[in-house]
Hints:
Shape: elongated
Largest sheet: 6 strands, antiparallel
Amino acid sequence: MWNDEFAYSFIYGTNERVNSIFDIFKSQMNLYHQWTGRNIVHFIVQFFLWIGKDFFNVFNSLMFILLIFLTYLFSKNEDEAKYPSSYTIILLLLFFWFGLPELGQTIFWVAGSVNYLWTTIFILVFLLPYKNLLDGKQTFKNNNLNCIIMAILGLISGWSQENTAVIVIFLISLSFIYFKLKKVVLPAWYFSGIVSLILGFIILISAPGNFVRSKMMYYNLTFGQQLINYVTSLLKVAYELKYIIIVLFLLFIVHLFSIKQILQDQKDKRNFFLAVIFALSGIISFFAMIVSPEFPLRAAFGGAVCFIISILILLNLGIPSKLRKLPVLVLLFPITVYMLFSMIHVYQNYKILSYESLGREWKVEKELGKGNLNVKLDPLSVSNDRYTFIYDISLNPNYTTNVHFAKFHGLKSVQIDTSFISIEFDNPNPDLYQIYFDTGKGFNELNSSKSHIYNKVDGNILYFAIPDGNIKNLRIDPGTKPQIVRIKNITFTTSVGEKRFSAEEIFKNMKPNNQIDSFKVINGVLEIHTNGNDPNFEMNIDTIKTLFLKKPYIELDVSSHEDSPFQIFYDTGNGYNEKQSAWDVVDHQNSQTTRLHFLLPEVPIFHLRIDPGFKSDTIVIKGVTIVTENNEYKLTLEQLKEKIKPLNQIDSVQLANNGLQIKTIGGDPSFELLGIENLLK
Length: 681
């Protein structure tokens, strides 16, 4: 269960759990006035959360099977069998698995599946009698019962989901024009379905909750900003649907070469235009999202199904059954094998998520038993992707996912248990913000943390996870566009402690690198003017480096005449090797002493070796501190001299006024520190 399931387990807007069908009706009334007009789908979601998710799993599987069958009915030729063959089923599965957007959200997630898979089923069921009427088949008799049935189906289709309702309205409008041109006498159920469809759509879009949600969630954007956001989202949708878009485009190109032959056959002509209409329906459902404050990938589900129907119609068009199967079968087997392996991987991910979720439930119960209402949980090990949907709690205890999780489990707060950096903004801009951590390999994407402000729900404080390792430097990228970024403070929180930098302290410790015009502190807020899509600045964290260190570690205060990479090797029973080592660099240009930190393993260490640089130099060690979980040992220079055992290319070790001087004479100097293993026990 994720955020929406936790939230919809309660009567919306209250702290009362749903315990009856009447509670669901009450919740839907609140939803309609406070959040959304999608009462049909959310009624179904709350119903299954009330009776149990196991029942939903069964019905959801049946709905997916129904999607396969309906897609087949809308795309099959008249000469094909009533039910799809195994070949057609596999072909449909391939298109669905690799073509539909965000399957984790639209197929496997309870709230997402009902909002997208189920609503697509609703519109296809509603459209089927109209499609049959277009084919000249009278599947529905013209009587009062069928008028009522179509009125109910129309109401459900119009009241379910905004851009899928647009698909239905577009298709029904074209069918009406077609029938009028052909002077076809239309049955009464045709009009009862249309009237209730429009009524349902009006109920959906005119819900007071839509306007409440918009005001509560979304920033007031100019038309230009809205258009940029829409185009950006549309490009992401196009990339997500790239496989079915490419196939659809190629099929249209192929058929254009035989367009004269197609137009001479009435059935082929009608099917070709039907393929065009379904393709246009998908495109129009995407264009309809321009009026929405956001266009998530999952909202392209209905349009993608229209594309797949169009593809199947074109595959069947004017090609004998045996001939159209032959070229497809050549590719079908290897792609099917790849799909099966992909499905196994997805299944394993969900199995891991299930185990880890059960572990979290156990921990929450354990903490509640102790009377602890503020709980920290380990992050999940599985990552979010198009097949595995994760809408997990975050580092921010006030984020919506955390609040609903805590409410569902009877907690005051819940939070991911890891070290983090939080940045508090003043009037934040919707954008992507990123922090890079240099752990010895420079700034790279692997050692970075991203956080978004999508809408007002995200608040004005962003949280960034801190990676494991010895962090030597830190870079902040304040957005991805020219803007004014206002920062109140930056807080570093680790298992060691917490340090907050005020706006003035950030100003003193920041070093602009790229695309920053100016920065100044105004009324306790750091105002940064950026002028490009990759602004960034480094932040001096020398005074708080120990916050990032997990115990045990060794701290050396060193100065040298060269930029000297120091490397520590620890022998845990397998001798000295690169895998069991850590390193840091002395900055000789720094007039002050450089403080080096080296993380050590938590397993027993038998010997410790230090390689002080890669060239001849005179190095001065001014202090050594060994920090363990329970103690902190500071070695005097005399103690340090006694513990040093030169191994290679060490010319001399002697005490001086400024510290312990070690003179090296080659490119691979090294010495051991004796007795350190005793301090680490």
